[in-house]
Amino acid sequence: MLVLESVHAHYGAAHVLHGVCLELAPGQIACLVGRNGAGKSTTLKAIMGLVRPSAGAISFQGERIDGRRPHAIAGRGLAWVPEDRRVFGSLSVEENLRVAAQATRRAGPSRVREALALFPGLVPCARQRASTLSGGQQQMLAIARAVVSRPNVILLDEPTEGLAPEVVRSIRTSIFDMRSSGVAVLLVEQNLQLALSIADTFFVLSRGVVVFHGTRDDLKARPNVVDQYLGVGRPKDTLQGVRIEH
C-alpha cells in the first residue's frame, strides 16, 4: 500500500535520510523507532510532502506521490498527526472536526460524529474551545481530526509522549479501532513497551538508515538491536515485560 524506496532527504546541507526503505501493508500497524535525531519525523514529513525527497521514490496504492503537494497527498487517503498536535485553539472540538471534514471530499456528513465517538471522553467537550483542553484531550482531538477524512493510512508522530496513563490507554485502543476498520497505521513511538504491545512490524532507524526490519517477535529476539539503537537501558527486562492485549 505505502512503499518508500531508497528515500533521501535534506534540510539545506544536512543530509537526514540516507536511503530509507519501508513498506506498510493494508490494515497493518508498523512502528518506526530510533533515538532522537534518527530521522523518524522526517520520514513521516517526506511521506506527506512536507519535506521533498532529494532521491528515491514514495508510492501509495501503486502511484508515485513524492513531489506532490501535501493537500494532494492527503486527498489520496493519507493523514498525519504531528507531534505538536496543531489543533485550532479558538475553535471548539466539534468545529475542529467540521473544518477537517470540509477540507476533504472523502468525509461524509456522519463522519464528525463517528470520529468524535472514537474518543468518548471528548464527547462532553464537543462545544469547548480546543485551547482549554488538556494536553491529552488535544492529542485525542488531533487524532480524531485526522480520522475525519477517512484515511487509508494514518501517520502518528509520538502520540503518547508526556500523557497520563489513562489517555495513553485510550489512544492505544483507538489505534486498534482504526486497524479494525481497515486503516493502516505508521507509528513513531519512543515508549518501546507500548510500541511492542501495539505494532505488528518494526523499522529501527539510525542516522537516517533502516538498520532493522522485522516483526515484534523478531525484535524481541534481538536485544542487541534494542541496546545498540534504542538505548532503553536493560533491553531484556523491557522486552520480556511486554503484555499483548489485542
Give, in order, the helices and strands.
Answer: EEEHEEHEHHHEHEHEEHHH
Q: What's the total helix number?
A: 10
What portion of residues belong to β-strands?
15-25%
Distance from N terminus to C terminus (CA atoms, Å) equals 23 Å
Which bin fits the share of residues in helices? 25-40%
Number of E strands: 10
What spatial form do the alpha-carbon principal axes imply?
globular
Instruction: Please describe the biggest sheet, giving its number of strands, its sense, and whether it closes into a barrel.
Output: 6 strands, mixed
Mean pLDDT: 90
Radius of gyration equals 18 Å
Category by helix and strand content? alpha/beta
Unreliable residue runs: none
Strand line-up in the sheet with most strands: 6-7-8-3-9-10
Describe the structure in your own words.
The protein has helices at 40-47, 70-75, 93-102, 111-117, 135-147, 165-180, 192-198, 216-220, 223-230, 235-240; strands spanning 2-11, 14-24, 29-33, 55-60, 63-64, 78-81, 153-157, 184-188, 201-206, 209-215. The protein has 246 residues and is of the alpha/beta class. Strand 7, helix 6 (165-180) and strand 8 form a beta-alpha-beta unit. Helix 3 packs parallel to helix 5 (135-147).
Keyword list:
25% strand; single chain; 4-stranded antiparallel beta sheet; 246 residues; 6-stranded mixed beta sheet; alpha/beta; 35% helix
Quick structural overview:
By secondary structure, the chain is an alpha/beta fold.
